Amino acid sequence: MEAAEDEPLSPSARLFHEPNFNVHVLSIMGSKSRINPQVIKEQLVHTFVKHPRFSSLQVVDEKNNGEMKWVRTKVDVEKHVVVPQVDEQNLQESPDKFVENYIHNLSKTTLDKSKPLWDLHLLNVKTSDAEAVAILRIHHSLGDGTSFMSLLLACTRQIADPDKLPTIPGNKKRPIDSLDQYSTSKGLWPYVTKVWSFMRLFWNTIVDVLMFMATTVFLKDTNTPIKGRPGSEFNPRRIAHRTISLDDLKLVKNTLNMTINDVALGVTQAGLSVYLNKRYGGDKKDKGATEKNNNLPKNIRLRSTLLINLRPRTGIQALADMMAKDTETKWGNCVGFVLLPFKIALRDDPLDYIRQVKATIDRKKKNSLEAICTFSISKLALKLFGIKTSSSISHRILTNTTLCFSNLVGPQEEIGFYGHPMAYLAPSSYGQPHALMINFQSYINKMTIVLSVDESVIPDPYQLLDDFEQSLKLIKDAVVERGLCLE
User: Looking at 140, 241, 395, 420, which residue is catalytic?
Assistant: First the structure.
């Protein structure tokens, strides 16, 4: 091992070593060309391997009550890059199914703790949407999904200009409340509105924190057909993805004055409603009528843990500089979450799904400090009660809700991963207590929807993807047919 100052693992990093939180993050990348493993290995030495977390072991410090610490080590790239020999001519299944089953089998395994906790699998198998597939697997104790995606993009360059990093659109700052219209007003009115805004922010935060605590203790979601069963975190995962048009989401977004995240959540709410209606009516003989009839129970409580990045966005330029010039940048797990309720129902107007979810997410993100509070509560629980108790608390929150949702913004131009042009990006994970995790990932003019499912709960993930895609079409058609579109 190289001489280096030992650094203890953060409490959140140690949390991911608990048996019920042994989460692995996957970044699945489709390549437009066959992958040259030697080129990848040579480039990793100058990028990933230079990152402190990707060149360190997680070692138990016997002299410090068994605490874990980072210890720098020499990385043998050959042991981290897996290139299975595949004879495409003799495949017993379709190439798409082969890649899907490979990832499914990968989710049955864990990373070897005797070396840095990451590996890269290169599959030179031609699928329906790529010439080859690369699967980057990273243990969640190394950092959160936003950090990983930023780091991955820092290892890419624009195809049109190989010297330039990808361009990631920034989030526009949105006001906490609509006070701008009163900013130029005179008299007491601006002060009244500001006081009212603060009172509403304070009240919503108190309500959300109480709901968070109630969920920790007793408040459970309805046992729907998509809710995970006890021990679901130990089951392998089926990863399925579908690429749709980002322009369709932008059309709805621009027309209804929303964000892409609002539209993605609205499509998710609509798709889940349609899918659950089919599942609840699955035992009926007339399946054609089942899809038209409302088979949903009343008052379904179904919530998602919506992941919110609380770190000031670490630019990919900073991460590229860190690997090239050994500079420092903030790293780790810095994610809060909000408990986002989905109203599961069949709507006559497809736009109602979007409007309802926008109202909910605006209240949760603009008029509440729920994400900051949940992050702070988690840190406090780790400090006061230790890893075991904190792990139990966090596990209860996740098992008492139904699913996890995230939406990541990707590059605006075509990129290459060490010279290999990318066809799509599909982030996901396994080891989480939820039976369903939904990731939206944008890339150029595409949006990829990625599902990570426990097949014992959701045996037909592609049906759910069909319902998402059809829901977006109905929402887009409703916008166009009513003449709302400006085009």
Answer: 140
Structure tokens given for 358: 């926008």
CA distance 55 to 71: 9
Which H or E run contains 122?
strand 118-123
The answer to whether residues 86 and 98 touch, using CB atoms and an 8 Å cutoff, is yes
What span, in angstroms and rounded, lies between the C-alpha atoms of 444 and 415?
9
Q: Which residue has the tokens 């909910």?
A: 360
The pLDDT tens digits of the residues spanning 22-62 come to: 999 999 999 999 999 999 999 999 888 888 889 999 888 77
Q: Write the burial class of residue 45 (CB in 10 Å: 0-12 exposed, 13-18 middle, 19+ buried).
A: exposed
Residue with tokens 């590996």: 119
Burial environment of residue 239 by CB neighbours within 10 A (0 to 12, 13 to 18, 19 or more): buried
Handedness of CA 215, 218, 219, 225 (dihedral sign): positive
Active site residue 140: yes
| pLDDT tens for each residue of 307-345 | 776 765 555 555 555 455 555 555 555 667 789 999 999
β-strand pairing of 403-408 with 436-443? parallel
